[in-house]
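Suppose a classmate hands you a notebook page containing two proteins, each written out with its sequence and a corresponding row of structure tokens. How would you begin to make sense of it? This section walks through that situation. The first entry is reproduced here exactly as it would appear on such a page.
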Amino acid sequence: MSPTPLQAFSGVAKANANQHTHKRTIVDGEKMTGAQALVRSLEDLGVKVVFGIPGGAILPVYDAIDEHTKFRFVLMRHEQAAGHAAEGYAVATGEVGVCIVTSGPGATNVITAIADANMDSIPMIVVTGQVGVNAIGTDAFQEADIVGATYPVAKHSYLVTDAQDIPRVLSEAHYIARSGRPGPVVVDLTKTAQNGTMYYSWPQRMILPGYNPTTEAHGRVLDDAARLFQHAFRPVLYVGGGAVRSDAGAEVKALSDLTGAPIVTTLPARGIVPDDDPAVLGMLGMHGTIAATGAVQRSDLLVAIGARFDDRVTGKLEAFAPGARVIHIDIDPAEIGKNRTPDVPIVGDVKTVLSALMPRIERQHAIHGKPNLTTWWGLINSWVEKYPLTYQEPTDGTLAPQWVVEELSHAANPETIWVSGVGQHQMWATQFINFSHPHQWISSGGLGTMGFGLPAAIGASIGSQRYFDGKKPVWLIDGDGSFQMTSEELAAAFLEGAPVKIALLNNSVYGMVRQWQTLFYNNHYSATILHEEEKTGLEGVPDFVKLADAYGCVALRARTKDEAVEAIRRANEINDRPVLVDFRVWKDAMVWPMVAAGDSNDNVTYLPGIKPLHQADGLAAMPVDSDAQADEATAIITEEQD
């Protein structure tokens, strides 16, 4: 195995500090330290907000941040939270999130956020401190190979040893983070580079040989895709987070309107087209709607748009959309064919590709007429009507968590940015919130990071202040288990003026794990009970109302529907500080529908004992000539073009 750059560097004989500092003579520009150059580079890149925590190996950079610095610095309480806050800020605003942390444990703490951003394609720059050049490889205090550690979970990583390289590296990092498939870029900044002298100039010439993301698709594949649309009688648009990153909501809706195809989404793509659009069937997969999952399973053309055929979507991969031809549109060529081999692979930016594809479909319609999808929509609408999202009422007098989410959605400002942690509450949020805008939903999808919610909500709130004059309020829906992993960030929310509203669905258990234990482990609730009030006689451990109050937040508790409605009303009226509402909800509530991990989506359970997609329900309404149509479509896209 090849060494990482830091490992290789540590094996090279070191020059003394003076030799290293003066190995190049560059006098074109303003003389300053590397730390000052980092701050100036971020300013010249247009960065408006930086999150972070100081430490020994990054102190020169923090010394360069003062009252004259053009960006706002937000002090978090944990490095992982600083990364998640940068993620929330990036998703809410469309800008590159930035955080700055120290070396060693500070850098390793932020790796979880880096991996999370990498899985969800979030543009982010993470600047980490590193020990001096001569100390690398000596196991110096708070030394860690952060470049090597982040290689598998970052889009790119830099080790900077010379102050003169800082502006160029920051320019490249910013470009790499936001271009192509967005992602996190790590800049590991040695103390030698921070303290070294350099000559600053701007703009910088980037050196990125071989990095040329494809944005425009070849005309041949677009024509092939248009022909498949023309011969599809059960098409589905399967829309993922890549379409959100491309800001392609208008194009997705236009394609649906043009072709008549329904829209199903992954978790990160919720809201890309408003939920009140009749073409939107909701989320598909493990906890998706019956209509969305059923439509994909019975489709004859599946158009994957910025999606990656994730296992939580596909279930048993070989049983996923078994009768469908596949068009796969993605800016990352590594995703094409990774899990499902497409009939028409299209590499390019989603927004650009869809804009180029639609005129070709219109041409096909003009020549051959528009396919009749009446039968297809008849089947879909029967699922929509017969199997709406629903839930079971509690048997112990507590609140139904799904009801709480519905009430939150009904009472919220339509411009609200919704954030969630990870667990059952995350699924209920994506199911029962009525989304009306893209970029309105922020959640940890691919990595499923508990503790993501509160810091991401803080980042979104800071972003709302910076770009939307605070007119987009932020509601966090979290579970008591997920919330406790980063609850210390209430201090940052209060002191940094981020008036997030927190709906804590408190069931005193790790709800999603408990659900699996109920369904698959014979009700053996091993290590999932967080607190039993009847044993301690306490309101909770912790008592979240007292905890929030201790951090300067407004704290409310709701045990009944009347109390819940009043608490939501009060929370929506408070905009000068964070508000936490402790909703006491049913610990035995389940997320339905559900597909068991690794099972076929055909076996989706609507409610216990009800499997709508079994053959008697699902196949009767399929067009009888579907096989012939599929064969014809295959022949058309494989024939030689003039």
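The notebook's second entry, a different protein, reads as follows.
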Amino acid sequence: MNKLLKNSIWILIAALGAAAVGGIALNRGESINTLWFVTAALCVYAIAYRFYAAWIAATVLAVDETRATPAERLDNGRDFVPTNKWIVFGHHFAAIAGPGPLVGPTLAAQFGYLPGTLWILFGAVLGGCVQDMVTLFLSTRRDAKSLGQMARDELGALGGTAALIGTFAIMIILIAVLGLVVVNAMKHSPWATATVSATIPIAMIVGLYMRSFRPGQVLEASALGVILLLLAVVGGGWIDHNPTLRTWFDHEGLTLAWWVMAYGFAAAILPVWLLLAPRDYLSTYVKLGTITLLAVAIIMLQPTVKMPALTQFIDGTGPIFGGKLFPFVFITIACGAISGFHALIASGTTPKLLSNERDIRMIGYGGMLLESFVAIMAMMAATVLDPGVFFAINSPAGVVGKEAIDAVAKISSWGFPVTVDQMQLLANQMGEATLFARTGGAPSLAVGMASIFGSAFGESMLALWYHFAIMFEAIFILTTLDAGTRVGRFMLQDMLGNIWPKMAETSWMPSVVLTSALVVAGWGYFLYIGVIDPNGGVNILWPLFGIANQMLAAIALCVATGILIKSDKLKYAWVTGLPLTWLVTITSAAAWEKIASDNIRIGFFSAANDLADKLAAGALPPEKAAVTPQLIFNLHLDGWLTLFFVVLLWLIVFDMLRVCSRYLAGKPVLPLAESPHTQSRLVEDWVRD
């Protein structure tokens, strides 16, 4: 009877999910309620986690809860520390959930709500979640080795070295982009700067509380941390309105960049229990609390989506970024569906904290599901805005015009009416001077979130909600930056360990300090270049972000597919092989367009040549001519890095295929690098107690 009841419930969930997805996909010409998006997401996620994830964990991976994890076997009190699963989940989610699930869907709304929504839902459950869970499992079975080191151990010197170099280089670019976004979010914003700064000492207090004052009292420490975080948010507003104190936190971008670099270095060398884990854990409360509040507000209000399912910009003429629906919707969405950066966290800090393999499904697959839900929330927050307002905020002045009257005329001509008075009123409500040409996705997302919160909980506080949303996005990003820096340190130690084994010891302080400094110097250089760029830096680094991130995911799935085949699991290799094939296709297509396209809004080299021709002809105004050589260099750098990354990707793919074909043919290959089975004492103690 119980089995029949359970089956009936899951059949109903499947039917409801199918109806919701069908309604979203087939709706044309009429407004659609956002409740359908929430319903579709929750039903798809529930079915995927209950059945697909459970099957992969039990059958494909064969997780073993009696097996000791690296955190238990190699416990050193600094990097390898068996940690409560909820704290690990909080750390993992905080580390993986950067700007991608917030900014990517917002920008992809240029194509309409439908393409991005479908990719977020199904790309996550079939690709992103699988990558995260499988990578976490494989790293846990290999002494928490980094992705690049696993590639070297399993594929050999050629593919492994390419993977090591590729993952580390991509990592540097990704962290630099994260740093640039958070610096731009905090620049001349005392409220955001004060609140984000306060999370650092708060995290250390919570870490010491759980480690020394009240060991094991997770709920007490969590309550203390949440109370202090809320006080930090309120205190940030108070500081912002204090003429004297606000000057202490009102800084230029370059000053903040140096502080961000110093924070990244500290997060990489301090014990994980003191700063990184508790800070990310507490940041998760802010993230989950805000997303939950947003979901509640959407359920209460049930606003309608105003953006059409598909816009005319699927042909590649969009004002926010150039490029057709394929492949650029997948590159733009990035982290909301699948992210290579997650593989670095899943093979970096998280397996060093995991106390039991049974938690891999919850942390790996479940953590990515939660990030995908964040992306769905971001898509809804962007598309409930009037399309004219959305495009006015996100369209660069170079496309729609510098003057407000020219911008509204251009946007209205596309069929998305908007007025100057409408935009000025909105800016006043948000406490901003103007909202025109606030590119990058973050401001329009904050406006959408503030509008929903204001309608549900009080429109008199729109400015408060807007600045809270900006601060929320900054915290989202900074927690990814600190974990990324630590993972970069692990990766560099692994690489240097191939030359001098002593450097691979994560507890040897000279290696820790040296590699941390080198990693921070690497991404700090690109951050510095981005901050001093007259165009705000996004044009230098952001185009690389989506392509590099998806290429990194392809590398992770490539390594996973190779290991599955070497583990005599050829019949299950499609689990990682299918998303790998798709990612290689879209990243190669996007890279080719960015390298070879004649369209100056798409191709890096064509844009550089266009600027060079205008500079030589004297067709540029003096202020732009002065910075044009730097812009040309940046575009060439983007182009050559894209070519470098795609060559490395194909090299790794071919090497993986070579190793697999040799194994299947019975020829010698490198043995599996899996650590020997060791019985877990933590499980024994738990059972006995």
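A careful reader of the second entry would note: Strands lie at 32-33, 304-305.
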